[in-house]
Write a structure and sequence with these properties.
It is built from five helices and two strands; from the N terminus they run H-H-H-E-E-H-H. The protein has one domain: Orthogonal Bundle (Arc Repressor Mutant, subunit A), CATH 1.10.10. The chain is mainly alpha-helical and 112 residues long. Helix 1 crosses helix 3. It starts with a helix and ends with a helix. The chain has a two-stranded antiparallel ribbon. The longest helix is centred in the last third of the chain and has 39 residues. A hairpin with a 4-residue loop joins strand 1 and strand 2.
Amino acid sequence: MELRQLRYFQAVVELLSFSGAAKQLKVGRSSVSREIQSLERELGARLLERSRTQVALTDAGEALYREVCRLRTDLDFVVKEVRQIAAETFKRARPASRSTGAQKRAARGNSG
């Protein structure tokens, strides 16, 4: 199971449309369909009921959708946290790495 498949699944569910999901994700409709079918095969469960005009969740699809939403929220939090830590680390490391030779000598008390 790949994160891409879960993103595609979430988009289809929220838009109730393969075409709408494809447009939002900026991929082809066939790519969305293929990834959802692959996800269904991997899980051994039909996630969506499809007709020419409608898309509806199955019970398995509802369960997966709830968990995908939770996972995506958790993942978004983790990404923000890691980026914040990285930014703070960069800020702490940056002044020392930007010191010029004159600044380093002045800090040591050397003038020349």
